[in-house]
Write a structure and sequence with these properties.
heterotetramer; A mainly alpha (566); B alpha+beta (329); C mainly alpha (263); D mainly alpha (120); C: 263 residues; mainly alpha; D: 120 residues; extended
C-alpha cells in the first residue's frame, strides 16, 4: 500500500475509531475473575482462541516428532513403535477434536458472529460460557489419558482394536464426549442467534456469507454430534462393561461402529471446512474491493454441502467390508458433494475478476486457500472413484488429501481470518511484511510436506506405519524438511501477531474496507459492541467505503456531492 | 463402452502410468492394476486441467487487477450471472458422473471373482498373514500362478486388518467374524509386497508378506514341495514352521516370556508345575497329551483355554513339533 | 447498557417475545440432538433386529409385558401432569403448579422403581448383556432334538480370548459357511441372545438416565415454584423443562412396543 | 444489571407470550394416550402376520404425535420449532436406512454365532 499515514486523528472521530485508550471490551472489567466468569462473547471468543491455539501448538509438536521419526525407515531412538502409535493418535485427536472443529466457529465465530449480526451478544451467553468450560473439561480429560496410558487406537477408535488395547481409551473417549457437548451448545447458540438476533434490514439473503457458513456448520454440529456422543458412550460401555454391540468377540458388529463413527465424522470435516469457506467469501470480496459474485449460489451451496455431507459417510468404508450396493450409493453422493465446493471456487475467482486486488496478508491466505483447497478438492475425485479408492485407501494419499483440505483449507482460512479480524480484536495492526513472509513460508512448507505424500501414497505407502520400506525414504525426508519449514512459518506468524499486541500500530475501525457491521464499531469494540444498534445494509457493498490516508483505514463515502464525512 | 475406455486409457495412460511403474503408480502386477491406472490417469488429467485453469486465472487476475493505489476502485462488473453459474455447476456434474460410472463398474469387476478361480484362505492376525491352500498347506507368503484368477477368502483372528497389494491395486479390510472375498489375476511372475493397511497395534507396520507369482507350472511344483516340508526339512525345522503357522506361537513364546500359555523355552525335559501342586515331566508323552487333550494337565498360573488339536495335527506333525521343542534349550 | 431496556430482559434481547422465542427454539434444537442421541441406539436396534429377528422374538419373552405397560401408563400420566403444570404456571395458579410438579416427580420415581424391579429380575436370571450374559436358556418342550448339547467348556476369561486359528479346513468347506437357516427354524434358543439384552439395557439405561436428569430439572423447577418465581409473564423455565420431560415420555412410547411387544 | 441474569422477563408489563392449552384438551389427550397404550398391548396379542411391527410403530407414532402437538404445544408454536424437530427425524431416518441397507447387504458374509469371547 502506498502512502499510509500512520497518525490517527484522536479527537472528534466519535464511534468507529480506535478505542484502545478508552473503554472497550478488553478494559471493561479488570482482573482474572472478570475474564473467567465473563458472559461477553468477545472475551469468550478470545479465551477460546488462546486454548485452541495452545492445542494447535501441542498437536504440532506431536506432528514434528512423528515427522522426525519418519526420517528413517527402521527403529528410531526417538520413539518405539508403541510411542509412535500413541503420537499419531494424539496428533489426530488433539488437532481434530481440540483444534480444528472448534477452531473457526468457537474462536473466530464467537468473536465475530454477534458483531456481524449487529447484536450485543449471542442468544444464550451463559450457555456460551458453559460451552467453553465443557471444552476445557473435555480437553483436560482427553489429555489426561496421556498420563494414564496414552491412547494408541488412532483418532477413529475402530473396534475391536479399541476394545482390546490396554491403553486408556475410556479417558480419551470420555473427553471427546464432553467436547462433543461443547460443540453442540456452540452450534445451538449460533443457530438461535442467527434466527432471532438478526438486525433490522438483514434478511436471510443479506447475511454475510460467513454467517451462512457458520449456520451450515451449526446444523452439522447439532445433527451429527449426538450420534458421535452415543457412539462414544457405547464404546465406553463396550470397554467398561463388555456390552457387545460393536465387539465381534461378543457377537457385535465392528462395521456398525464404523457407520456410527463416520455418520458424525464425515459431516465433521464439513464442520471444519464450511466456516472456512465463509471466511474466504468475506475476504475475497473485501480485498478485491468488489461485491461478492453470485451471492445466492454461494449461500445455497453452503446449505447444500451441509445436507449432502450427511449422505457420504460411507466413502470412508469402501474397503472396510461395506457392501457393494452401499459403496455405489456413497460413491455417487460423494461426487455430488464436490459440486457445491466447485461452485464456490468459481464464484470466488469471478469475484476477483476486474477487482482491485490488495495483496495484504489475509488476501495471501485467500490465494493460498484457492491453490491448496483446489488440490485438496480435486484429489477427492481420485478417492471418490471406487476402483481407484481401493488402491489409495489407507495410504499416504489419503493423509495428504485430508491435510490439503483441513490444513490447506481450514487452517489457512483460519489464519486468514485471524489476520483479518486481528485489528478488530486487539485494536493493533501487525507487521505487514512479516505477515506476508509467514504466509509464504507456510504455503511453501505445507506443499513440500504433503505433496510428496500424494506421490508416496499412490506408490502404495500405507499410513500409520512406524516401519516402512526403504524405497519411500526420500519422500519421507523431503516431507519432513517441508514440515520443519511449515513450523518455522507458523512460528513467524505467531511471533508477528504476538509482537503486534505490544508494538503494533493502533488499528483504525475499518483497516481493510469491509462493509459488514463489525467494521462500523471501534477497534476493539466496546463491551456492548455498538453504541447504537446498527441497521444492516448490503454486506458486500464495499464500494461504499473509501480509503482515508489520514487514519490509515477506510471511511464511508459521503453521498454524492458532499465531501467525505471523516 | 469398453472400446471407449480402451481408447481413453491409451490416450491418457502413456504419460503417467507405465507397466513398470511411474511417477505416480507402482508396477502393474495384475489385470486389475491396468484398469485402475486408466481411471487414475483420467482423473489425474481432469484434475490437472481444472487446477491449471483455476490457478492461472487466479494469477492472471492478481497481476492484471492488482491494487496500485490505496484508493483504487474495482472496475464495475456484474454481481451475478445465472447462465454462467448454471454452466459451471452443470459441467462438473457431467464430469464427475463419468468418473463415478467408470470407477464403479471397474470396482464391481474387481470384486466379483470368476467362477473358476483358485481359492486361498487368508487369515490376518497380530501381526502376520497366513495363507491356507486347498490342500490344507499353510504358508506365510501368498504363492500363486501367473495368469490364473485367484480368489482370496479372508478373515481375521483378532482385530481388523487390511490386506493390501499395491502392485495389484488390491485392498480389503479383513474383519473378525466374517468372510470377505477378493480376487486378482497376476500378469507377471515376480515378488510383490503385501502390507497391512488397517491399523492394528504395535506390529502393524511389520505385517508384511510377499505375493510370489510363479511361472506356469511353477506354482504346482512349489505347493507340492512346500506341502511336503515334513519330508524335505529336518524334523526340528518342520516343527518350528508348524509352531509358527498353526497358531502355537500365538500363545506360546520361544523367548522365555509367558504369553496366554507357558513359554516353550527350556520346556522339554524339565519338570512342569501343574495346577493343584502336582508336577509332571515334560517328555514326549506330556507334549503329545497337551496338544491333543489340553485340559488334562493345566500348568500352574495359566487358564485352561487351549483348544484341542485332535484331528488338526497329524502324528507326524506332532513328532516334528516335539523335535523342535527339544532344540529350545 | 441502554437506558430504555426493560429491567428483567437480558441486555441483548429487544423484546420479551424475542427472548421467549429464542429460549423455545434453543430447547427444540436441544431436543433434536436428543433424538439423534437415541437415534444411534434405535439404529443399532434396527440393524440387529432386522438381521437376527429370531433373537428378538425369542428373547423379548423374558421381559415383563405387564410391568412395561404399567410403566408406559405411568409416564403418560406424568406427561399429563407436566402439561397441566405448564398450564397452571401460565395462568399463575401457584399452588396447583407446585402440586402438579410434585405429582410429576412422584410418577417419575414410580417409573424408576418399576424399572428397578425389572432390572433386578434380569440380574438374578443372568439375562444381561454381552460379557455378563450367563442365563441358562431352556430347551423348548417337545421331542428331544438332534441338537447336540455343547460339550462342557471350562471357565473362560473373555479378556484372554483364544487366538488359535480355526482348523485349517480347505476353502472348499468355506462355501458352506453362507447364511445358515438353522437359527430361525431349529428348535432351542438362538445364538447371540445376549445381543438383545445389550440393546435392551443400553436403550432403557440411557432412557433411565434421562428420567433421572428430568427429575433433577423438575426438582429445581419445584424449588423455584415454591418461591413463587413463576407467573403469567415468566414461565419459560417450566415450559422448557416440560418440553424435555415430554421428550423422555416420547422416547418411551417407542421403546415399549419395540422391546416388549415383539411378535 | 448482570448480563443475562434472567432468561425471560418477569413482572414486566409486556404482552404475555406463549399459548395456554385448555384443560379439556389436555385431559382428552391424556385419555387418548392411555387408550392407545391399551390398544397396542391388545394388538400385540394378535398375530397380524408380517404387519406386527408396522402396526405397533404406527400406534406409537400416533401417540407421539399427540404428545408433540398438544403437550408440547407444537400445534400452537412457531413452525420453525416443528421444522427443527422434523429435520432431526429426517436425519435419523437417513442414518438408520443407510445403515440398514448396508448391514443387510453384507449380512450373508457374517459367520453365524461368531462370538469367541462369550461363555457358552
Amino acid at each position: 500500500m502506498a502512502n499510509i499515514d500512520t497518525t490517527t486523528d484522536a479527537g472528534g472521530r466519535g464511534a468507529g475509531q480506535n478505542a484502545l485508550g478508552g473503554d472497550n471490551y478488553l478494559t471493561h472489567g479488570r482482573g482474572l475473575k472478570s475474564w473467567l466468569f465473563t458472559l461477553d462473547h468477545k472475551r469468550i471468543g478470545l479465551m477460546y482462541l488462546v486454548v485452541i491455539l495452545s492445542s494447535f501448538l501441542l498437536g504440532g509438536i506431536f506432528a514434528m516428532l512423528i515427522r522426525t521419526k519418519l526420517l528413517s525407515p527402521g527403529n528410531s531412538a526417538l520413539m518405539d513403535a508403541n510411542t509412535y502409535n500413541q503420537m499419531f493418535t494424539l496428533h489426530g485427536a488433539v488437532m481434530i477434536f481440540l483444534f480444528i472443529i472448534p477452531g473457526i466457529p468457537a474462536a473466530l465465530g464467537n468473536f465475530v458472529l454477534p458483531l456481524l449480526l449487529g447484536a450485543k451478544d449471542v442468544a444464550f451467553p451463559r450457555i456460551n460460557l458453559l460451552s467453553f468450560y465443557l471444552w476445557v473439561t473435555g480437553a483436560l480429560i482427553a489429555l489426561g489419558s496421556i498420563v494414564t496410558g496414552a491412547v494408541d487406537t488412532g483418532w477413529t477408535f475402530y473396534t475391536p482394536y479399541s476394545t482390546t488395547t490396554n491403553t486408556n481409551v475410556i479417558a480419551m473417549v470420555a473427553g471427546v464426549f464432553v467436547l462433543g457437548f461443547s460443540s453442540i451448545f456452540t452450534g445451538l447458540n449460533f443457530v438461535v442467534s442467527i434466527h432471532k438476533l438478526r438486525p433490522q434490514g438483514m434478511t436471510w439473503f443479506r447475511m454475510p456469507l460467513f454467517l451462512w457458513g457458520i449456520y451450515g456448520t451449526a446444523i452439522l454440529q447439532i445433527m451429527a454430534t449426538p450420534v458421535l456422543g452415543i457412539t462414544l458412550l457405547l464404546l465406553i460401555a463396550e470397554r467398561a462393561l463388555g456390552i457387545g454391540i460393536f465387539d465381534p468377540a461378543l457377537g457385535g458388529d465392528p462395521i456398525l461402529f464404523q457407520h456410527f463413527f463416520w455418520f458424525y465424522s464425515h459431516p465433521a470435516v464439513y464442520i471444519m471446512i464450511l466456516p472456512a469457506m465463509g471466511i474466504i467469501s468475506e475476504l475475497v470480496s473485501v480485498f478485491s474491493r468488489k461485491h461478492i459474485f453470485g451471492y445466492t449460489f454461494i449461500a445455497y451451496s453452503s446449505i447444500a454441502i451441509a445436507v449432502l455431507s450427511f449422505l457420504v459417510w460411507g466413502h470412508h468404508m469402501f474397503v472396510s467390508g461395506q457392501s457393494l450396493l452401499a459403496g455405489m450409493i456413497f460413491s455417487f453422493l460423494t461426487f455430488m458433494v464436490a459440486i457445491p465446493s466447485a461452485v464456490k471456487v468459481f464464484n470466488w475467482l469471478a469475484t476477483m475478476y476486474k477487482g482491485s486486488i490488495w495483496l495484504a496478508t489475509p488476501m495471501l491466505y485467500v490465494l493460498s486457500f484457492l491453490f491448496l483447497f483446489g488440490i485438496g478438492g480435486l484429489t477427492g475425485l481420485f478417492l471418490g472413484a471406487l476402483a481407484v479408492n481401493v488402491h489409495l485407501h489407507d495410504t499416504y494419499f489419503v493423509v495428504a488429501h485430508f491435510h490439503y483440505v483441513m490444513f490447506g483449507g481450514t487452517v489457512i482460512a483460519f489464519l486468514g481470518g485471524l489476520h483479518y479480524w486481528w485489528p478488530k480484536m486487539f485494536g493493533r495492526m501487525y507487521n505487514e511484511l512479516w505477515g506476508r513472509v509467514g504466509a509464504l513460508l507456510v504455503f511453501v512448507g505445507f506443499n513440500t510436506t504433503f505433496f510428496t505424500q500424494f506421490v508416496m501414497g499412490s506408490q502404495g505407502a500405507p499410513r500409520r506405519s512406524y516401519h516402512y520400506v526403504s524405497q519411500f525414504q526420500p519422500y519421507h525426508v523431503l516431507s519432513t524438511i517441508g514440515a520443519y519449514t511449515l513450523a518455522i512459518g507458523l512460528v513467524i506468524v505467531a511471533v508477528n501477531l504476538a509482537h503486534s499486541l505490544f508494538r503494533g500500530r493502533p488499528a483504525p475501525a475499518n483497516p481493510w474496507g469491509g462493509a459488514t457491521l463489525e467494521w462500523q464499531t471501534s477497534s476493539p469494540p466496546p463491551h456492548d459492541n455498538f453504541p447504537t444498534t446498527p441497521v444492516a445494509g448490503d454486506p458486500y457493498d464495499v464500494e461504499a467505503w473509501t480509503y482515508d490516508g489520514r487514519i490509515g483505514g477506510f471511511v464511508k463515502k459521503a453521498p454524492a456531492g458532499q465531501p467525505a464525512a471523516s | 463402452m469398453r472400446l471407449g475406455h480402451e481408447l481413453i486409457g491409451r490416450l491418457l495412460g502413456w504419460a503417467s502410468v507405465q507397466a513398470e511403474g511411474g511417477f505416480w503408480m507402482p508396477v502393474q502386477g495384475s489385470t486389475g492394476a491396468v484398469v485402475v491406472d486408466r481411471i487414475f490417469s483420467l482423473v489425474l488429467w481432469v484434475s490437472v486441467f481444472f487446477f491449471v485453469l483455476i490457478v492461472s486465472l487466479m494469477v492472471f487476475f492478481v497481476v492484471r487487477y492488482r491494487r496500485r493505489d490505496a484508493r483504487d476502485e474495482a472496475t464495475p462488473s456484474p454481481r451475478h450471472n445465472t447462465l454462467l453459474e448454471v454452466t459451471w455447476t452443470a459441467i462438473p456434474i457431467v464430469i464427475v458422473i463419468v468418473i463415478f460410472v467408470w470407477g464403479f463398474t471397474a470396482f464391481l469387476n474387481l470384486n466379483v471373482p470368476p467362477a473358476n478361480s483358485y481359492e486361498v484362505l487368508v487369515t490376518g492376525q497380530k501381526w502376520k498373514w497366513l495363507f491356507t491352500y486347498p490342500s490344507g498347506h499353510v504358508d506365510e507368503d501368498l504363492h500363486v500362478s501367473v495368469n490364473t484368477p485367484v480368489s482370496l477368502v479372508m478373515t481375521s483372528e483378532d482385530v481388523i486388518h487390511g490386506f493390501y497389494v499395491p502392485a495389484f491395486r488390491l485392498k480389503r479390510d479383513v474383519v473378525p467374524g466374517r468372510y470377505v472375498k477378493l480376487w486378482f489375476r497376476a500378469v507377471k511372475p515376480g515378488e510383490y509386497q503385501i502390507y497391512c493397511t488397517q491399523y492394528c497395534g504395535t506390529g502393524h507396520s511389520d505385517m508384511w508378506a510377499k505375493v510370489v507369482v510363479h511361472e506356469p507350472g511353477g506354482f504346482e511344483r512349489w505347493l507340492e514341495e512346500a506341502s511336503n516340508f515334513l519330508k524335505t526339512m529336518s524334523p526340528a525345522q518342520a516343527g518350528e514352521r508348524l509352531v509358527r503357522t498353526r497358531g502355537c506361537a500365538q500363545c506360546h513364546t520361544v523367548n522365555g516370556t509367558a504369553g496366554t500359555g507357558p513359554t516353550f523355552l527350556s520346556l522339554f525335559g524339565h519338570q512342569v508345575a501343574l495346577e493343584g501342586g502336582r508336577t509332571a515331566p515334560a517328555d514326549e508323552d506330556y507334549v503329545r497329551e497337551s496338544i491333543m487333550e489340553p485340559q488334562a494337565k493345566i500348568v500352574a498360573g495359566f487358564q485352561p483355554v487351549m483348544p484341542t488339536f485332535k484331528g488338526r495335527l497329524t502324528d507326524q506333525e506332532v513328532t516334528a513339533i516335539i523335535e523342535y521343542l527339544k532344540t529350545l534349550k | 447498557m441502554t437506558g430504555a431496556h426493560p429491567e428483567h430482559l437480558a441486555h441483548h434481547f429487544d423484546t420479551a417475545e424475542q427472548q421467549f422465542e429464542s429460549g423455545k427454539l434453543g430447547m427444540w434444537i436441544f431436543l433434536a440432538t436428543e433424538i439423534l442421541l437415541f437415534g444411534g441406539l434405535f439404529c443399532a436396534y434396527a440393524v440387529y433386529r432386522s438381521i437376527h429377528p429370531e433373537i428378538f422374538v425369542y428373547a423379548h419373552r423374558f421381559l415383563d409385558k405387564a410391568l412395561g405397560a404399567i410403566n408406559t401408563a405411568v409416564l403418560i400420566c406424568s406427561s399429563f401432569t407436566m402439561a397441566w403444570a405448564v398450564r397452571c404456571a401460565q395462568l399463575g395458579r401457584q399452588r396447583a403448579l407446585v402440586r402438579l410438579l410434585v405429582a410429576t416427580i412422584a410418577l417419575a420415581a414410580c417409573f424408576l422403581g418399576i424399572k428397578y424391579i425389572e432390572y433386578q429380575h434380569k440380574w438374578k436370571e443372568g439375562l444381561l448383556w454381552g460379557k455378563y450374559f450367563r442365563a441358562k436358556l431352556e430347551q423348548p418342550a417337545g421331542p428331544p432334538t438332534a441338537r447336540p448339547t455343547p460339550a462342557p467348556t471350562p471357565a473362560f476369561n473373555p479378556d484372554e480370548r483364544s487366538l488359535i486359528p480355526p482348523a485349517a479346513e480347505g476353502p472348499g468347506g468355506l462355501a458352506k459357511r453362507g447364511p445358515e437357516p438353522l437359527l430361525a427354524s431349529s428348535p432351542g434358543p438362538p445364538k447371540d441372545v445376549q445381543v438383545f439384552f445389550a440393546v435392551y439395557f443400553t436403550m432403557t439405561g440411557l432412557h433411565g438416565i434421562h428420567v433421572i436428569a428430568g427429575m433433577i430439572v423438575l426438582a429445581l423447577m419445584l424449588v423455584r415454584a415454591t418461591k413463587g418465581e413463576f407467573g403469567p409473564t415468566y414461565f419459560t423455565p417450566v415450559d422448557l423443562a416440560g418440553l424435555y420431560w415430554h421428550l423422555v415420555d416420547l422416547i418411551w412410547i417407542f421403546l415399549f412396543p419395540l422391546l416388549y411387544l415383539i411378535r | 444489571m448482570s448480563e443475562g441474569k434472567h432468561d425471560a422477563q418477569r413482572g414486566v408489563a409486556a404482552t404475555p407470550v406463549g399459548h395456554v392449552v385448555p384443560f379439556k384438551v389436555l385431559a382428552a389427550v391424556w385419555g387418548t394416550l392411555l387408550a392407545f397404550t391399551a390398544l397396542t398391548v391388545a394388538v400385540a396379542g394378535v398375530d397380524l402376520g408380517r404387519f406386527n411391527l408396522e402396526i405397533a410403530l404406527a400406534i406409537a407414532t400416533l401417540k407421539a404425535s399427540f404428545v408433540l402437538l398438544y403437550f408440547m404445544h407444537m400445534r400452537y408454536d412457531r413452525p420453525m420449532n416443528a421444522i427443527v424437530f422434523i429435520t432431526a427425524l429426517l436425519f435419523f431416518m437417513l442414518f438408520v436406512s443407510l445403515a440398514l441397507l448396508d448391514s443387510h447387504a453384507y449380512a450373508p458374509d457374517l459367520i453365524p454365532g461368531y462370538a469367541p469371547a462369550l461363555p457358552q
